[in-house]
Amino acid sequence: MPLEIYNTLTRKKEIFTPLVPGYVGMYVCGPTVYSDVHLGNCRTFISFDIIYRYLRYLQYKVRYVRNITDAGHLEGDRDEGDDKFSKKARLEQLEPMEIVQRYTLGFHEVMQLFNNVPPTIEPTATGHISEQILLTEKILANGYAYEINGTVYFDVEKYSREKPYGILTNRKLEDLLEGTRDLDGQDEKKSRLDFALWIKAKPEHLMQWPSPWGMGFPGWHIECSAMSNKYLGKRFDLHGGGMDLAATHHTNEIAQNEACFNESPAQIWMHTNMLTVNGTRMSKSLGNGFLPHELFTGNHPMLNKAYSPMTVRFFMLQTQYRSTLDFSNEALQASEKGLKRLWEAYQFLQKLQYEKGEADAELNEKVLKLINDFDTSMNDDFNTAKVLASMFELVPVINSIKDGLIKTGEMLESTFILLGKKFKDYLEDIFGLKNSDEINDGKLAEVMHLLIDIRKEAKTKKDFATSDKIRNQLNEIGILLKDEKGGEMSWGLDV
Questions:
Q1: Residue 146 and which of 87, 113, 438, 454 are 20 to 30 A apart at CA?
Q2: Domain of 463?
């Protein structure tokens, strides 16, 4: 079965054919590093990690580019409010790049805990200012932008007279205009939908660069166009991100690329769906959002206990990436048990030796079909949930061999070998799960939760000797304990 991928642009599944045979160019919008990465973001990065792993399993040579947004990100998608990096730096009395460094390192630590493979290229917005200026100049020269008082705006209405601006979300310009506020003479833009390619910096702005239009900084949307174009070319295979990026950020990326090169940057656009909590969208403002370290330590009022990174990763695999995933303690605890059951069967399978016997054609056919269903399900738009369902159907067969109810010889030797290989390919290489001995069923996280409570109590009593002793001795055995704002603490393995 050929690989089929759902394309947000065409709103249907398409047989995937790379632009260059054997090679795949994939761009994923990475984190904005002015705060800790949230669990919803982690779902996106874990989903694309699995897609990256599967494409390599299919023997494609993949260039996976995932950017770091460290400049030009304002509080509103339409260039409203303060620059988040400058605002954070002023509040904490730090240089903006100190903020960037801290949260970039934190992001990488979380990705390592989830066992994500690093992208092949991880460019930063601040490292590609010249490329963003060049793209802005080209859009200006092609007549799709205008400059006012040192700020360059993309002319959405002019662009829309020639090309469908809302093609990615299937929305007409009139509908988009209805959903935006009137300018009321308070904005220098020609139209409410126009967005900034380059923004004039106020004198006190902390992050600014020279440009043909004066000192300023790039708009949020131009950075991805500039970096994807530099590393993947004018047109590449896959562009991904969370579904919240489709309506504005990715829509504007398409417009920028069309204005520069007269074609959409990617042939397939992919979007992960949201996480919900008891049916309500997970968000920081509602107080139902989770940071990864809160899950790993159990330090959140909505959590009954701590959960290991592998339990959380396994939980996310149980729903196809385009489907809503509902978060609850019950779901995580079920994932914990399910992962343990699956991994125990896999460990037994790894040690098992084949012994020739009388073949059972029906059993052999059943096992072979379930094994082949792994690839069939992944080729159906990376449906990890169906792969796991097939795996769990094989677990009773493996356990029956363990209990002596079935002999290995009742399968063909080729089927037995394939069973062991495919379990390894999927559990370790594609799904990125780790040995259950390393997982420890979340027990390490529960111990750390207890130690953190003891250390908090010691600090409250000003018993700094005990507090420092706990931290230092944990560091010596490779567990890093970090003091956060507001008296909170987080921890991670020194990987």
A1: 87
A2: 440-493
Reported as a pLDDT band with limits 50, 70 and 90, residue 286 is confident
More confident residue, 441 or 410: 410
Contact 266/236 with Cβ under 8 angstroms?
yes
Same domain, 411 and 460: no
What residues pair up with 240 in beta bridges, in sequence order? 28, 270
- Asked whether the beta carbons of 317 and 115 are under 8 A apart, the reply is no
Q: Do 55 and 128 reside in the same domain of the chain?
A: yes
Rounded CA separation 297/307 (Å): 7
Length of the chain: 495
Q: What pTM did the predictor assign?
A: 0.87
Same domain for 381 and 354, yes or no, is yes
Q: Is residue 322 part of a domain?
A: no
Please give the C-alpha separations between residue 483 and each of 100, 168, 395, 490, 491, in angstroms, as whole numbers: 18, 43, 43, 7, 9
Q: What is the DSSP letter of 20?
A: B
Tokens encoding 134: 């060049």
In a domain, 71, yes or no: yes
pLDDT tens column, 319-345:
999 999 998 999 999 999 999 999 999
